[in-house]
Amino acid sequence: MKAFSWALLVLEIVVLSFFGCTSTLLGQSLGPNVIWQKCLGGTLPEEAFAMQQTSDGGYIVVGFTHSNNGDVSGKHRGGDAWAVKLDKNGKIQWQKCLGGRYLDEAFAVQQTSDGGYIVAGETSSEDGDVSGNHGWSDAWVVKLDKSGNIQWQKCLGGSDYDFAYAVQQSSDGGYIVVGSAKSNNGDVSGNHGNADAWVVKLDKSGEIQWQRCLGGKGEDAARAVQQSSDGGYIVAGYTWSEDGDVSSNHGYDDAWVLKLDKTGNIQWQMCLGGSNSERAYAIQETSDEGYIVAGFTVSSDGDVSGYHGGSDAWIVKLDKNGKIQWQKCLGGSDWEEAYAVQQTLDGGYVMAGHTNSTGGDVSGNHGNDDVWVVKLDKNGNVQWQRCLGGNDKDIARALQQVSDGYIVAGYTKSNDGDVTGNHGDRDVWLVKLGN
After folding, report:
1. 99-121 pLDDT, tens digit each
2. Among positive and negative, which fits the CA dihedral 6, 8, 11, 15?
3. What DSSP line would sit under 152-180, residue for residue?
4. Domain extent listing, the chain
5. CATH no. for 33-433
6. DSSP character for 33?
7. Rounded to an integer, what distance in angstroms lies between the CA atom of residue 92 and that of residue 172?
8. What is the full DSSP assignment across 332-382?
9. What is the pTM of this model?
10. Residue 427 contacts residue 414 (beta carbons within 8 Å)
11. pLDDT tier at 29, thresholds 50, 70, 90
């Protein structure tokens, strides 16, 4: 009897150890738990394109809205750029509709040194909050105070289509803005043909100090910018060109990374990709003075290896001179894109985007597109991944590691699974994950 009891005890320890280990492995595979989630919007479509934790521990989120009910008030006649300030638990402190009678959108935001916010996007309006539009669509930069009131706004562009996709306050108190310009008049000069990547340096009042059109005869765009530790700028986007400022394009559109000096002169440029399509949506300087790039790839040659099929989220680690140190294709047989990437406190990386797959690197998809968050170690190996969403379309556009986890922003069309409180159609969606 005594021997039998010992046998049961040993069996219990083995079983508990097995399931405890399995639980740990599953926890690593599926990633951290959802702490809270918030749907923001009204009965018409909303999306979030950018988000940042603020100095008070809350969050600033920007995108667009077509609603004028629910969480939204003060909308102008067209679709408006929408800025929302949340507390640390995701409760709205204030919201502002920015724009005029036509389409206005915000693609980037950063809290500024004075506690206010700089917002960048595009406007087709010439009334309401907008003045100085040059024609068609202009890049639009708006300075808000800490309560969301407009301090100044600037329309940047010419008579054709011009957009701003990213903005950052620079070390001199001014701002660096990047996007795309099809114009070659007004504020724009030096266009190579078609659309160029456009880099504009503003002073602290929004006045242009210098601007650069970068590209060739094809379509080129800048989607991300950061001031680098040497005082210059690192820019990422895509190029269809193989002339002008562009060399070594692999075919179709390549992800394109440019290192600029402090006055916008090219120090080096790199086309990244293969014989099919690639784009870069995010870039960050890393602790070793290199760079981490995120976007997507549809290639399986050139700079790309490990392609799963469809479109893969693509993460590329570059050294300080733009040479590839490693690259990772992440996804399954369907469609993935990475819109955000950040180096984490442990020296690894975290990316956010979306997935439509149910195999390969992806597990736990709820159906259709899910928000997809992937944690990598310093060499690009997957440590955990998490699918977030419901049975409709869910997309992440922004991500930040915070002291107690991660905050993710994008949009959701779901109202099941991980999603509750959808107001109708697409809502801005924020998800707080633990560590």
Report:
1. 999 999 999 999 999 999 999 99
2. negative
3. EEEEE--SS-EEEEEEEE-TTS-EEEEEE
4. 1-30, 33-433
5. 2.130.10.10
6. P
7. 32
8. -SSBEEEEEEEE-TTS-EEEEEEE--SSTT-----SSSEEEEEEE-TTS-E
9. 0.93
10. no
11. low
